[in-house]
From TrEMBL:
Record's protein name: cyclic-guanylate-specific phosphodiesterase
Stretches assigned to the EAL domain: 412-665
Pfam families to which the protein is assigned, alphabetical: EAL (PF00563), GGDEF (PF00990), Tll0287-like (PF11845)
InterPro entries: Biofilm_reg_signaling, EAL_dom, EAL_sf, GGDEF_dom, Nucleotide_cyclase, Rev_trsase/Diguanyl_cyclase, Tll0287-like_dom
Keyword annotations of the record: c-di-GMP
UniProt-listed Enzyme Commission number(s): 3.1.4.52
Catalytic reaction list: 3',3'-c-di-GMP + H2O = 5'-phosphoguanylyl(3'->5')guanosine + H(+)
Length: 665
């Protein structure tokens, strides 16, 4: 680029310099032409006047070529001696005295191949021009070097006029013949001096331009290379942790697998996932979550060798690639196991983030290659499946991939794909579980519970697919469908006049669904669209949702409450059970999680928890509903302590709408 720019500036400078020199010559040419034009005009004028008289004593000699003209010399009555000057003689006087006609230094010379006077004899340049005129040329010009420097020369033919014949008639010329030429010499040096000055200005200008261009290019180069670096970083590195991203990692994994296959060398792939990270992120906010991920990334990098690749695939998922583990599979396995233990020991600890002490544990899935897989994608799937296995076993553990895990991982993927079309295929349905008054055993309402009538797997419970819907974002569409379907069902039941209308239906709202900025508008829209009175719908929110953004949650709840919608807190006791939100949030009921109900009245801890929840709710003026009530004993215990309502198999399972109608009778 610099070379090209330098070349461009040099060419421009050379071109401008020649232009300046040429323009000096052009200037000389126009001076010469003007001079010749004047010469010819004067000659014509004097010829027209029939010549002019001049005083002989003024240094003018009588013209010998006019000796035959009568009256050539006259004496005036005053005694002055005059002689007749014809045009040639007059112009010769001008040229001889170097009376510059057009510009300083300019010289004129009348010449001919047959001069009457020796002084009019042509020099070689003029001779060549005169010969060219004889061939029809109208102008002759050129640059010559003289002892005084370069000169520009221009000559034009002089044609024979009647006046000329007076002197030249005897030479055989006729009117219109080329009699000779009027040649003019213009010194170029003064013009070149001016040109040099302009060239200098051009040179300086070009120098400045060159410097400017170089500066611009350097800056542009820096910006471009900087941009390129930025782009490369953005394309291959994770902006949050600075670790390689999925693209770069997959490339390295690909290379490592090929090398391992070629050289029969072992390698290992670790898939790491932070346990309950989603919970931390949801409850404490993304910036805390990001801070934690950065710290874990740094700690992880610090535990590995320089040649091991650590990457972040996204979210809280990290991968580690170990290569060059030798050819012995057992030794490779042992090495990998040792490292996995070390990772768990060092990474599972408290991390201080923005004033919070966050305890982190991780689940690690490991697969060894090349024996386990043929492609890098397979390897990643295997390590991922092994990681899920470690998580399913309670987390804070590592697990090696075994082929049976693949089937589970494949199933999960299959479920994800199937779920995408479940809604539009009409495979989702709502079941209804009665909510019953603890004292009078009267149905107060129902909880709508989602079911998936999977074409291959049959009736599928939400615990098997809600998390997939959450992770993929499908929960937004599904959650909206649930509210709309519950409203539609309320309207349908209302239409059956034979029965007392069902006072309320509760629906579960997922955290992601509640977080939508337009959640309130969406719910209002559905209520308006279906014409259901807002008081007939109870939105069940988990503690997690509320803790995540207490103020935002309170605002949404109040907005919907203002139109009459109702809220209750689901799975109470499973999260933080914070008194603060009980005080601040306008909810009307708490639902005791079924895990606390299961072992009452035998487990003293559960007994204490349930009693506390009921007492607390009472103090805050909230109603209490117990979930998962399966025995009379549980019901008596709850009813005796003031639990308002319950759900559970004791009264009824969740059932399809039609069955629910029959149940109501
Ligand atoms: N062992 C036992 N279990 C009982 C008994 N009575 C009711 N259950 C079950 O307990 C769950 C109660 O719902 P949940 O706590 O809101 O827990 C729900 C809720 O968190 C979620 N879920 C269900 N439907 C939806 C939905 O439409 N949207 C969202 N976001 N989540 C839903 O899935 C969870 C599980 O739902 P289900 O499988 O329907 O499971 C239901 C219900 O069938 C009993 O006596 N004993």
């Amino acid at each position: 680029m610099v070379l090209l720019w330098t070349l461009a500036v040099a060419v421009s400078l050379a071109w401008n310099t020649t232009q300046v020199r040429q323009s000096a010559q052009e200037q000389a040419r126009s001076s010469a032409r003007a001079s010749i034009d004047k010469d010819i005009n004067y000659r014509g004028l004097i010829a027209d006047l029939g010549g002019v008289y001049a005083r002989i004593d003024a240094g003018v000699e009588p013209n010998p070529f006019l000796a035959h003209v009568p009256g050539r010399d006259v004496v005036t009555t005053g005694g002055a001696r005059l002689t007749l000057l014809n045009s040639s003689y007059f112009m010769r006087l001008i040229h001889d005295r170097e009376l510059h006609i057009a510009s300083p230094g300019l010289r004129g010379h009348a010449t001919s191949l047959h001069p009457l006077r020796a002084a009019n004899a042509p020099d070689p340049w003029e001779r060549a021009g005169l010969e060219a005129f004889a061939q029809g040329a109208r102008e002759w010009s050129g640059v010559e070097e003289s002892p005084d420097g370069s000169v520009f020369r221009l000559m034009r033919p002089r044609l024979t006029t009647t006046a000329c014949l007076e002197c030249h008639g005897h030479q055989g010329y006729r009117e219109g013949d080329v009699l000779g030429g009027i040649s003019v010499t213009v010194p170029l040096e003064p013009l070149y001096a001016q040109a040099r000055e302009r060239t200098l200005v051009f040179g300086l200008g070009h120098g400045f331009l060159w410097l400017l261009g170089i500066g611009g290019l350097t800056l542009g180069y820096r910006i471009l290379t900087g941009k390129e670096e930025d782009l490369t970083r953005a394309a291959f590195y994770d902006p949050l942790t600075g670790l390689p991203n999925r693209t770069l990692f997959m490339d390295r994994l690909e290379q490592a697998l090929l090398r391992a296959q070629r050289h029969n060398e072992r390698g290992a792939l670790f898939y790491l996932d932070l346990d309950r990270f989603k919970h931390i992120n949801d409850s404490l906010g993304h910036s805390i979550g990001d801070g934690l991920l950065r710290q874990v990334a740094t700690a992880l990098r610090g535990l590995l060798r320089e040649e091991d690749t650590v990457a972040r695939l996204g979210g809280d998922e990290f991968v580690v690639l170990l290569t060059g583990l030798g050819s012995d599979p057992d030794a490779a396995f042992l090495h990998t196991q040792t490292l996995a233990t070390k990772l768990l020991q060092h990474l599972c600890r408290r991390y201080p983030v923005d004033g919070h002490e966050l305890y982190v544990s991780i689940s690690v899935g490991i697969t060894l290659f090349p024996e386990n897989a043929h492609t890098s994608q397979d390897l990643l799937k295997q390590a991922d499946a092994a990681m899920y296995e470690a998580k399913d076993r309670g987390g804070n553990a590592f697990h090696f991939y075994v082929p049976s895990l693949q089937a589970a991982a494949d199933l999960r993927l299959q479920m994800e794909n199937d779920l995408r079309s479940a809604l539009e295929n009409g495979e989702l349905v709502l079941y209804y579980q009665p909510q019953v008054d603890s004292e009078r055993n009267q149905v107060l309402g129902a909880e709508a519970l989602l079911r998936w009538e999977h074409p291959g797997h049959g009736l599928t419970h939400p615990d098997d697919f809600i998390h997939i819907a959450e992770e993929t974002g499908l929960i937004l569409a599904i959650g909206e469908w649930v509210i709309r379907e519950a409203c539609r069902q309320i309207r349908a039941w209302d239409g059956e006049s034979s029965r007392r209308p069902l006072p309320q239906v509760s629906v579960n709202v997922s955290p992601r669904q509640f977080r939508q900025p337009d959640f309130v508008q969406r719910v209002k829209g559905i209520l308006a669209e279906t014409g259901v009175s807002p008081g007939r719908i109870v939105l069940e929110l988990t503690e997690r949702i509320l803790l995540e953004d207490m103020e935002g949650a309170a605002e949404r709840i109040r907005e919907l409450q203002a139109i009459g919608a109702r809220f209750c807190i689901d799975d109470f006791g499973m999260g933080y059970s914070s008194l603060a939100y009980l005080k601040n949030l306008p909810v009307e009921a708490l639902k005791i999680d079924r895990s606390f109900v299961r072992d009452i009245p035998t487990d003293p801890n559960d007994v204490a928890i349930v009693e506390t929840i009921i007492a607390m709710a009472w103090r805050f003026g909230l109603k209490v509903i117990a979930e998962g009530v399966e025995t009379e004993e549980q019901l008596h215990f709850l009813a005796a302590r003031g639990c308002d309502a319950y759900q559970g198999h004791l009264h009824s399972h969740a059932m399809p709408a039609v069955e629910f109608e029959r149940h109501l009778g």
